[in-house]
Amino acid sequence: MPLPPRILLKLSCPDRIGIVAAVSTLIAELRGCIVEAQHHSDVSSRRFFMRQVIDTAEMNLTLEQVRERFRPLAQKFDMDWLLRDEALKKRVAILVSKQDHCLNDLLYRWRSGELNFELAGVISNHLDCQSFVAWHGVPYAHIAVQKDDKAAAFAAVRRQIEQWDIDTIVLARYMQILPPELCAVYSGRIINIHHSFLPSFVGPRPYHQAFERGVKWVGATSHYVTAELDAGPIIEQDATRTHHAHDVEQMIRIGRDVEAAVLARALRLHLEDRVFVIGNKTVVFAA
Q: Are 233 and 105 members of one domain?
């Protein structure tokens, strides 16, 4: 099977002299052409991070043969690494409750091809978005969450995710707290949008908290989900201006646009393998 036109290399390893030179030399020996390169050396963790896109027009190899040639180098430098077809699409499930502004934005970007992913389906604990999702021709799984039996609901959610063979889960204003075991199984693959500029205003009703504090900016944060509520590694953030004349409902309306934009940007960064997690922080190589 021939190589795809471009392949993506993503790696991290303990920082030391010679990493870039060794990788570049090997790619040149394989007659690959580096068309995009980003590097970062993190002082606190003493780790090195790299993302490269390689044009394969002159490479007379298969993708597996390229991986085989790269493995000795990866072992030498103790690398965590990924080498894949740059055009490969991740399989995504979107989880939503009642508010559909982030879902609507993601569906538009998916249908238009602006975001390159394979949408397996939408899961919701309500029926509010069912007809809208059906109009897009996307499967919709309604899994109600009962207060006295959440474990059963999340077992059903997990079964649906496994049935769809999901790579990435997006919480597009899904107003339920995922159980720790689901967070662990899909660690680094669940992306949430929180409607505040974290770490401020964690938990429910952040716009109401912001209103009570009289803030002059409202924001949104997209982060990877962990067992600790709204405390996972941050991928993307943004904020917009507000003032004393805005009531809570006006602040919510202003914030919706920020939420949708921040979630879409975070998902794009994840889909393109531009995000590295270091403990509770991230290194993000911008597009």
A: yes
The catalytic position among 80, 230, 257, 273 is 230
Q: Would residue 230 show up in a list of annotated catalytic residues for this protein?
A: yes
Say if 1 falls within a structural domain: no
Q: Which residue has the higher pLDDT, 249 or 155?
A: 155
Residues 70, 51 share a domain: yes
Decide: pTM greater than 0.70.
Answer: yes
Within-domain flag for 166: yes
Domain interval for residue 196? 90-284
- Residue 19 — φ and ψ, nearest 5°? -65, -50
For the chain, the farthest-separated pair of C-alpha atoms sits apart, in whole angstroms, at 65
pLDDT, one tens digit per residue, over 49-74 is 999 999 999 999 999 999 999 999 99
Distance of CA 45 to the CA centre of its chain: 22
The span from the CA of 46 to the CA of 13, in Å, is 9
